[in-house]
Amino acid sequence: MNNSAMTQSGDPDQIRDTVFVVVPAYNEAACVGRVVEQLRRVYPNVIVVDDGSSDETAAIARGAGACVLRHAVNRGQGAAIQTGIEYALQRGAEYVVTFDADGQHDVADIRRLLEPIVRGRCDIALGSRFLGEALDLPASRRILLQLGVLFTRLTSGAKLTDTHNGLRAFRRRAAQKIEITLDGMAHASELIDQIARSGLAYMEVPVTIRYTEYSRAKGQSSRGAVKIALHYLLGRVLR
Ligand SMILES: Nc1nc2c(ncn2[C@@H]2O[C@H](COP(=O)(O)OP(=O)(O)O)[C@@H](O)[C@H]2O)c(=O)[nH]1
Ligand SMILES: [Mg+2]
C-alpha cells in the first residue's frame, strides 16, 4: 500500500511496520530491556541510541530486539535523537516516534500520536502530560516544567502546554526537516523553535507520564534546568 492510500485509510494499526521508534538511552540498563520489549510487541522497528553508557544498556537493548546505535562518548540526548532520526529515515521510515528509555511513557500513547498524522490532520504530534496525566509528578517538577512552557512561549512563540515531553511523532517529511544541533537537553526548546518556524502542522495530544522513584532519581534536576536554559540561549545567540 502506498502512503497516500494509508493516509486515506487512516488506521494507525495498518502502518506499524513503517513506524520507527527512536529511544535515546544513557545508562538505562535497569529499564531499557522492558521498554524495548513492550515497544516491540506493537512496533517491530525500535532503534535505541546508546549514548556512551558505561553500563549494559546496549547489550540489554539488543537482547530485547532493538537495533542499537552507539555514540562512543556521551554526547547528550539531543545528539542521540538526531542520530536516531537520521538512521530511521535512511531505513525508510514513514513515521518516526521518539520515546524515553526510562519507562515513563506508555506504548499505547504512540497510537494516539500517530492517529492525527495518519489521518492527515497534522505532520507532527507532541505528547502533553498536562492535557493527559502526570502520575506522581512531584510539585517541584511541575513548577519546573511550567517554567519550561513559559520559557518556550517567550522564546519561540509556540503556545504549547508541555514543552519537555520526550514522546513525539513525525511523518517522514516533517522528520526530514528537523535538524537538532544542540546536543544536550536544550534540544527540546530548539526542536519547538524549528517546528514553529517550519510551517508544518503540529498539535498536542494527551499522554500519560509516570514518575517512579527510578525516573525521579535519574531525571533532570532543577539546577540542571538552569544550565539547559542558558545552553539554549547561547545556542540562539550563536546561530
Ligand atoms: N542519549 C542520551 N539519552 C539521554 C541522556 N540523558 C538522558 N537521556 C535519555 O533521555 C530520556 C529522558 O531523560 P530524563 O533524564 O529521564 O529526562 P526527564 O524525564 O525529562 O527528566 C531517557 O530515556 C534517558 O535515558 C544523554 O546524555 N544521552
Ligand atoms: Mg525521565
Distinct ligands, ions and cofactors found in the model: guanosine-5'-diphosphate, magnesium ion
Q: Report the radius of gyration as a whole number of Å.
A: 17 Å
What topology, given as strand order, has the largest sheet? 3-2-1-4-6-5-7
Q: What letter string, H or E per element, gives the SSE order?
A: HEHEHEHEHEHEHHEHH
Say what the CATH topology is: Spore Coat Polysaccharide Biosynthesis Protein SpsA, Chain A
How helical, in percent, are the residues?
Answer: 40-55%
Largest sheet, in brief, is: 7 strands, mixed
**Could you name the CATH class?**
Alpha Beta
Named CATH architecture: Alpha-Beta Complex
In terms of DSSP E residues, the strand content is 15-25%
Structural class: alpha/beta
Number of DSSP E strands: 7
As for the number of domains, it is 1
Overall residue-averaged pLDDT value? 92
- The 3D shape can be described as globular
Distinctive features:
binds guanosine-5'-diphosphate; binds magnesium ion
What is the structure about, briefly put?
It is built from 10 helices and 7 strands. With 239 residues, it is α/β, with parallel strands linked by helices. It is globular, with a radius of gyration of 17 Å.
List the helices and strands and how they pair.
Blueprint: H1 3-9, E1 19-25, H2 32-40, E2 45-51, H3 57-63, E3 67-71, H4 77-90, E4 95-98, H5 108-118, E5 124-135, H6 139-156, E6 168-171, H7 172-177, H8 187-198, E7 202-210, H9 213-218, H10 222-238
The structure holds guanosine-5'-diphosphate and magnesium ion (MG).
